[in-house]
Specification:
661 residues; mainly alpha; two-stranded parallel ribbon; 32 helices; 2 strands; elongated; transmembrane helix; membrane; mitochondrion; NCA2-domain-containing protein; transmembrane
Length: 661
């Protein structure tokens, strides 16, 4: 939701409260008469007006949009407001002094309410149109700033516009030759001589321009167009500030034109909102008329609007010292004036603005990209020939590339993902192991049997009983091979005899089996560690594929995403830059005698605040954004004074610094 929509919704709500207060106030001069209730034609007319009023209310459309101009004009046309109602008929029988004290019909009041709703939406459309057309001018101005400040951009612009300058020069030469009576029918030699003379004359006429470099001429053109765009931007900003400072927005906040009247207020005060509506229509017409004036100076803008409104009867009605009263104002006149403002004045403004921006804005896409497009068209046949001659190689490369992508996705993303899922589910097939199952138990049991058999066959004394054998088994499980080592020590004293007649070889083989068991015990420990970190290894195997996939996706998205602005700010950085522009406007502004911003500075401030709201809506949380809107409303309130507005900027900077940096 934009700032303009908020303003329109607030004004619309005040109009609703105003009507409710009038219908509940004792002594009303208008009410639904019995004739209007029982007359089918008048009842249908009242129902039609009520339906049209609802269609123009703020809640009838999306809360984030305004009622379009075409719908406003359509509603006014369907309303068919004329002077046929009883109140208008009585008004036509009196002079413009407004001395009529007759009771106002309900149909008449509904027509006024319809006009007030239509004027509110038209006010929003005018503000939105000027605002939306003013904001993009900053990019156009920066385009010419780049050409002025950089020789590289100036040279590029010179190359881009060289065909246009050549065409204009050729047209001028052609017109000079035609003015001298040159025709191909008179002979090619005579025509060529006239062309040569025209070229020489034009070269002598432009001899001063030849002293200056081509880049200087380009920069001079850029400066002229930049200044023209700056003037348009300041004029539109002044128009915005004037509409906000003197229009319905100001009346709804600071003045009493749309305030709910007192319970027993004077009749003139209770009808003041009608003159406010008429005044706003006159103000919109005057502002649009002044903006359309191409010769208007920025310093004389406010004075010109004031002079235009002084001669307007609609604007004069709001003045308490005026000889005319609100009662003399007919709804049909207001409707015709509003239709003229929307249908002709606003359309003329849009056309004039578009023409000025087209003339002074950046060149079209055709002008900026004709050179690379021409190179592409010229080389297209060569490129096509290369593609046809190497069709099989290209297709084979595409197939291999596609197969590589598929294999990468399958082997490095899908399969590791399946293994990770299997690990989480404790699937047997996904277990990581470096040792065969039950291998350690078999080797350890074999070692026990070897040692027991050796000890039984070579007892150190009498034969071993079952208790001693069980004790030997327990010691073997703990790694104690004492019977074998004793025999090994004895045979090592006489190795040859021990190898031939003793048990040296058997003891060595048993120790080899013991070494194997020890190695398997160590491997079993390592295997346990691997199994405990099995999920970690699964994610490590999955990480490279995921990182490559994410990186490729972000690269492709960044390559093919269409971005409208050359300067691609981070969203948080954009907020900070906009806030800096707001602070710059407030610091550079010259306050009025009342310590307030001028209308021009107020309009520039509104443009930046509009961008600030749009950027913040996608960053700030919903509750924080709601509080942020309160700060913004206080910031754009020009009546609060320049000093307070600067304080609001500082408060926004430190209160929302978390999202601005």
């Amino acid at each position: 939701m934009s700032f303009v929509v908020d303003q329109v919704n607030r004004i619309d709500s005040q109009l609703d409260r105003l009507q409710l207060s009038e219908t509940t106030t004792p002594g009303d001069r208008f009410s639904v008469s019995r004739e209007e209730t029982h007359d089918p034609a008048k009842a249908a007319r009242i129902a039609q007006l009520q339906s049209l009023i609802k269609s123009l209310s703020a809640g009838s459309s999306s809360k984030s949009s305004l009622v379009p101009t075409s719908k406003i004009l359509s509603v006014l046309s369907q309303a068919d407001i004329s002077s046929s109602c009883s109140t208008c008929t009585q008004l036509s029988e009196h002079d413009d002094s407004g001395a009529l004290q007759a009771e106002t019909s309900y149909e008449h009041e509904l027509e006024w309410l319809l006009l007030s709703k239509a004027t509110t939406q038209a006010y929003g459309e005018v503000l939105s149109t000027i605002l939306e057309q003013t904001i993009p001018l900053e990019d156009e101005i920066w385009y010419w700033e780049d050409i002025l400040n950089t020789y590289r951009f100036a040279g590029l612009y010179s190359v881009q516009t060289s065909p246009i300058r050549l065409w204009r020069w050729s047209i001028d030469i052609y017109h000079d030759v035609r003015s001298k009576g040159g025709e191909l029918a008179n002979g090619w030699q005579q025509f060529y001589g006239l062309v040569k003379d025209a070229v020489q004359e034009r070269s002598l006429a432009n001899i001063q321009r030849q002293v200056v470099s081509p880049l200087a001429l380009v920069r001079s053109e850029a400066k002229r167009k930049r200044d023209a765009l700056k003037r348009i931007r300041l004029m539109n900003a002044n128009a915005l500030g004037l509409l906000l400072g003197e229009g319905l927005s100001n009346e709804s906040i600071h003045e009493d034109g749309l305030q709910t009247p007192g319970r027993y207020g004077a009749q003139d005060n209770r009808q003041r909102w009608k003159s406010t509506i008429a005044k706003n229509i006159a103000l919109m017409d005057a502002v649009i008329h002044t903006v359309n004036d191409a010769d208007m100076s920025i310093d004389k803008f406010d004075g010109s609007v004031g002079a235009y409104t002084q001669e307007d009867d609609f604007y004069d009605l709001h003045d308490a010292s005026s000889d005319r009263s609100v009662a003399s104002l007919r709804p049909t006149d207001v409707a015709e004036r509003l239709q003229y403002t929307l249908n002709q004045a606003l359309s003329k403004y849009s056309t004039t603005f578009s023409t000025a921006v087209t003339t002074n804005g950046r060149p079209s896409l055709l002008v900026r990209y004709w050179l690379p497009a021409s190179v592409f068209l010229i080389s297209s046949t060569t490129i096509l020939r290369i593609v046809i001659n190497r069709k099989e190689e290209i297709l084979n490369w595409v197939r291999e590339f596609g197969q590589t992508v598929i294999d990468f996705w399958s082997n490095w993303v899908v399969e590791p993902s399946k293994k990770v899922i299997g690990t989480i589910r404790h699937d047997e097939g996904s277990e990581v192991s470096i040792l065969s199952k039950r291998s350690l138990e078999g080797d350890r049991a074999s070692l026990e049997r070897m040692v027991v058999d050796f000890a039984v066959a070579n007892p150190d004394g009498p034969a071993l009983n079952d208790t001693q054998i069980a004790d030997i088994r327990a010691k073997v499980r703990e790694g104690d091979l004492t019977p074998v080592l004793k025999a090994y020590e004895q045979d090592m004293q006489k190795p040859v005899m021990g190898a031939i007649r003793g048990n040296l070889i058997t003891a060595l083989l048993i120790q080899i089996q013991k070494t194997k068991v020890d190695v398997e015990v160590a491997m079993s420990g390592i295997d346990s560690i691997l199994k405990s970190q099995e999920l970690l290894f699964g994610f490590i195997g999955l990480t490279p594929g995921v990182l490559v996939s994410i990186g490729t996706y972000r690269w492709l998205r960044g390559m093919f995403t269409n971005r409208s602005s050359v300067r691609k700010w981070a969203r948080e950085g954009q907020l900070l830059l906009i806030l800096r522009n707001i602070h710059r406007i407030l610091v550079a502004a010259t306050p009025t005698d009342f310590g307030e911003l001028s209308y021009r500075d107020h309009g520039l401030l509104l443009c930046e605040v509009h961008l600030l709201r749009q950027a913040a809506s996608g960053i700030l949380p919903r509750r924080i954004f709601h509080d942020f809107l309160r700060e913004v409303d206080e910031l754009v309130d020009v009546r609060s004074g320049l000093v307070r507005q600067k304080e609001v900027v500082e408060r926004i900077r430190w209160a929302y610094s978390k999202w601005f940096t």
